[in-house]
Amino acid sequence: MAKKPEYIVPMVRRALQILHFLLEHRGSHGIGEIAQALNFPKTSVFKILYTLESDRLVAKDAEDRYSLGLGFLPFEAEIRNRWNFTDVTRPIMERGVALSGESLNLGICVDDAIVMLDTVAGEEFFIMRHLIPIAPLYCSAIGKIFLAEYEEEDRRQYLENTVFTPRTISTLCDEKSILADLKTIDETGTAYDREEYEYGLSCMAKGIYARGELIAGISLSGPTSRLAHKGMDRMEEILADVADALAAEPGLGSLLQL
Q1: Domains and CATH numbers, the chain
Q2: Which residues, if any, are the signal sequence (predicted)?
């Protein structure tokens, strides 16, 4: 949902954007590289990284290049200790993978982005994947499910404030195409990513609802050619059964709340 801009602290937002950059771009990166990629002043990037390094949230190597630091490990451990949602979701997802042979992915929407919580892998395939735990709404199947649920004003703000970057030649980057796609999702309840996020990889998604509220999305992904060979209708049937089974689990909404 749209946030009130007057409550946003610019320097904190910049720090978070730098952390997201380091998460999405593996390896180490220099101050100049980060500043150029995010269009931030070098002095601001230096001060933010210096502060984050003091709490070990980033690490600096001998060449003054930065990566995510070990300071995040206690956060990860605490989250994993508190959450046991996979005890509920894993058996259902594993049954879906056994029937389809394709990967199933569970995600939620946090601040206009999809956070992937869990994946059960299907059959192997040899496609170079650059998937990350955080995906945009406009070019991921689960993201489209959530975007289709946005109220008109929230959707308008998202479309106005988002820089649409084409990950492939199939990525929908203009408002007219995106709105037409969302209209179809409203009508069918299924969202498709047809090689919009990664070449050679297609994905379909359904929403998971609790008491009428969208709490998560479940997607089925695999090589485009293999999904077509197996039959997209059959894959969608399996996905729908998985989504219904997850929605029927009492208390899942509470477990999935960040």
Answers
A1: 10-72 (1.10.10.10), 83-256 (3.30.450.40)
A2: none
